[in-house]
C-alpha cells in the first residue's frame, strides 16, 4: 500500500511498534463498522473476534507461568481485570491508538474516537492482525510489552474493579449504608500469606473474601456481597 494512505499506515506502524508484511491487515484492524458502512469496506469486527481469543490465551499463559502458586480462581480474576474494556482502553493510550481508528462521520461527531468500547475493540483487532501477519510469538511479545506494567499492577492488587466503592454506592441507595471490613483469618508463610476478610453492613456480617493481601481480600468480599444483592 503506497500513496497517502500508505504514509498513514507507516505512521501507525511506527507508533504501535510493529511493521506489517501485509498492511491491509492493519487497515482492516482500524476500520470501525461505521466507516466500513460508508466506504463499503470490511470492518474490524472479525479481527476483533479473533483478537479477543488471542489475547485471552496470551495473558492466561503468561500469568499461569509467572504465578505458579496462585489458584485458578485468582488467575481468572487477574485475567478478567487485564482484558476488560477499560484496561485495554487505558493501554491503547500508550500507542495513541484512538487517533488512527477509521470512523464514520456520525461516529466521529458523537465522540466515538474516545469511546472505550471502540478503542478496546480496535486494540484486539490490531493484536489479531499482528498474529495473522507475524505469528503467535510475535503477537505475544507485542502485547506483553505493552501490558507488562498493567500485569505487575494487577498481581499486586492495584488494578481491581473498585468493588468496595460500588458496594458502598449500591447500599446508600437503600436504607443501609455503613460498610466496614475486618480480618478474620491470616494463613500461610510470610512470603505466601492468604488473608480472609469479612464485610459488615451496619455492623452486621454479610460476606467473606480471600486474597493474597488485605486489599485483595476486601475487594473479593465486596464483590461477593454485590453478587448477593444482585448488583
Write the layout of secondary structure elements.
Elements: H1 3-16, H2 23-29, H3 33-39, H4 45-66, H5 72-83, H6 85-92, H7 105-109, H8 116-134, H9 136-155, H10 163-172, E1 179-187, E2 194-201, E3 204-211, H11 214-228
Antiparallel strand pairs: 1-2, 2-3
User: What percent of residues adopt helix (DSSP H or I)?
Assistant: 55-70%
Structural category is: mainly alpha
CATH architecture of the largest domain: Orthogonal Bundle
Could you tell me the radius of gyration in angstroms?
21 Å
Q: How many discrete structural domains?
A: 2
Order of helices and strands: HHHHHHHHHHEEEH
The total strand number stands at 3
Strand order of the largest sheet: 1-2-3
What does the overall shape look like?
elongated
CATH superfamily of the largest domain: Ribonuclease III domain
Unreliable residue stretches? none
- How is the CATH topology of the largest domain named? Ribonuclease iii, N-terminal Endonuclease Domain, Chain A
Report on the structure:
By secondary structure, the chain is mainly alpha-helical. It has helices at residues 3-16, 23-29, 33-39, 45-66, 72-83, 85-92, 105-109, 116-134, 136-155, 163-172, 214-228; strands at residues 179-187, 194-201, 204-211. The protein folds into two domains: 3-155, Ribonuclease iii, N-terminal Endonuclease Domain, Chain A (Orthogonal Bundle); 163-228, Double Stranded RNA Binding Domain (2-Layer Sandwich), CATH 3.30.160.20. The protein has a three-stranded antiparallel beta sheet with strand order 1-2-3. A hairpin with a 6-residue loop joins strand 1 (179-187) and strand 2 (194-201). Helix 4 crosses helix 5, helix 4 (45-66) packs across helix 8 and helix 4 (45-66) packs across helix 9. The longest helix has 22 residues, at 45-66. The protein is elongated, with a radius of gyration of 21 Å. The model has no long low-confidence stretch (mean pLDDT 87).
Amino acid at each position: 500500500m503506497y500513496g497517502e494512505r500508505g504514509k498513514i499506515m507507516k505512521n501507525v506502524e511506527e507508533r504501535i511498534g510493529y511493521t506489517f508484511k501485509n498492511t491491509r491487515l492493519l487497515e482492516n484492524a482500524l476500520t470501525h463498522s461505521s466507516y466500513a458502512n460508508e466506504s463499503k469496506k470490511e470492518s474490524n469486527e472479525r479481527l476483533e473476534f479473533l483478537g479477543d481469543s488471542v489475547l485471552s490465551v496470551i495473558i492466561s499463559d503468561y500469568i499461569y507461568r509467572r504465578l505458579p502458586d496462585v489458584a485458578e480462581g485468582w488467575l481468572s480474576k487477574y485475567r478478567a481485570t487485564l482484558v476488560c474494556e477499560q484496561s485495554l482502553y487505558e493501554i491503547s493510550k500508550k500507542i495513541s491508538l484512538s487517533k488512527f481508528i477509521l470512523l464514520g462521520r456520525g461516529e466521529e461527531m458523537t465522540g466515538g474516537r474516545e469511546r472505550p468500547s471502540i478503542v478496546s475493540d480496535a486494540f484486539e483487532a490490531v493484536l489479531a492482525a499482528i498474529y495473522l501477519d507475524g505469528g503467535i510469538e510475535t503477537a505475544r511479545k507485542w502485547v506483553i510489552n505493552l501490558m507488562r506494567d498493567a500485569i505487575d499492577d494487577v498481581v499486586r492488587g492495584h488494578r481491581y474493579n473498585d468493588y468496595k466503592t460500588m458496594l458502598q454506592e449500591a447500599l446508600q441507595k437503600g436504607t443501609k449504608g455503613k460498610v466496614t471490613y475486618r480480618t478474620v483469618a491470616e494463613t500461610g508463610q510470610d512470603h505466601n500469606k492468604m488473608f480472609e476478610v469479612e464485610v459488615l453492613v451496619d455492623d452486621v456480617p454479610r460476606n467473606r473474601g480471600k486474597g493474597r493481601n488485605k486489599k485483595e481480600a476486601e475487594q473479593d468480599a465486596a464483590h461477593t456481597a454485590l453478587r448477593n444483592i444482585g448488583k
